[in-house]
Design goal:
43% helix, two-stranded parallel ribbon, four-stranded parallel sheet, Rossmann fold, 310 residues, 8 strands
Length: 310
């Protein structure tokens, strides 16, 4: 079980969850309660199948809950098959992996719906995502072809994702150019020396505290990032997040995250009402009723100076 499987099951059929990969923290608990998923917050944490042995799954916890299957969802990685085979042998539980590489998320929802006996619900979610892809393709122009986008994840935005990442795929799909390794060190930490040679169009953050520091031109994040011209001129944005970051989640980035990013990079072309889109998304995927004030507060974290404006 991984965080992507946890996310997909929460959006599709949360009552089928027997455990969570990562426990729900206190700040997130109210979100789950509001969506009628309070039971998820009480589930045991059993870890993820693809982590290292030191921080991997809790075999004892799995034995205690006796799940019907062990589900892992994500992008294929080296040795993943052998790890899941070993896990299946150790636990005696069938292990299922679903590929959600970019463009495959709708298919993964349909397969999971078949597996869990909720095909109609899965089809609604899959069709919604396909509708996003279709609309982006219809609107896509060459306007963004020279815009280089850096996704800076983690605390202080110090981590970058390589070319084999869903975030990079989404940026490319919209029509912009993702900045990827080797412009970061081997451990994934951004190499600011290498980054200085890039013509960065906009920097996207998950960490709201870092974003606030950049907006105010003071604090640790600003001290770290102030040498980058895009940051100096305010071409930064922070991902909204409810349950998960729209950019950080491998599931959400391919749905509501794609719409949001398109609207940030080129609002003249992708002129979505993101508050309305957020309300639609959370209603469909989480059964969560949000009022206009809540959704507008969620999406209106200011983009200081989006690329398309500069």
């Amino acid at each position: 079980m991984g965080i992507c499987a946890q996310t997909m099951l929460c959006t599709l059929l949360p009552e089928k969850l027997a455990s969570v990969a990562v426990s729900i923290n206190e700040a997130e608990t109210q979100e789950y309660l509001n969506a009628g998923m309070g039971a998820v917050t009480d589930l045991p944490e059993t870890g993820t199948a693809i982590k290292s042995e030191a921080t991997g799954i809790d075999l004892g916890g799995i034995e205690a809950i006796v799940p019907s299957i062990i589900l892992d969802i994500g992008t294929p990685k080296e040795e993943l098959g052998s790890r899941l085979d070993a896990l299946q042998e150790e636990t005696g539980r069938p292990c299922v992996f679903l590929d959600i590489s970019f463009g495959k998320l709708p298919e993964a929802y349909r397969k999971l719906g078949q597996l869990l006996g909720c095909g109609k619900r899965a089809e609604k979610l899959a069709s919604y995502i396909e509708g996003i892809y279709s609309d982006i393709e219809k609107r896509r122009t060459k306007v963004l072809g020279s815009c280089k986008v850096l996704y800076a994840s983690g605390e202080l935005g110090l981590h970058s994702r390589g070319s084999a990442s869903l975030q990079a795929d989404v940026i490319s799909f919209i029509g912009a150019v993702p900045i990827v390794t080797p412009h970061s060190a081997e451990n994934g930490t951004i190499d600011f020396g290498a980054l200085a040679s890039e013509d960065v169009g906009i920097v996207l953050f998950d960490d709201a505290d870092s974003f606030d520091s950049l907006c105010s031109h003071e604090g640790e994040a600003y001290e770290i990032w102030s040498s980058i011209p895009a940051v100096q001129s305010g071409r930064v944005a922070v991902s909204p997040g409810l349950f998960h970051s729209w950019l950080g989640s491998l599931v959400l980035v391919q749905a509501i995250g794609t719409l949001w990013l398109a609207s940030v990079l080129c609002p003249m072309v992708y002129d979505y009402d993101m508050a309305q889109k957020a309300e639609e998304f959370y209603g469909l995927f989480y059964g969560l009723e949000t009022d206009a004030e809540t959704t507008r507060e969620l999406v209106n974290k200011p983009v200081v100076e989006g690329y398309a404006h500069g």
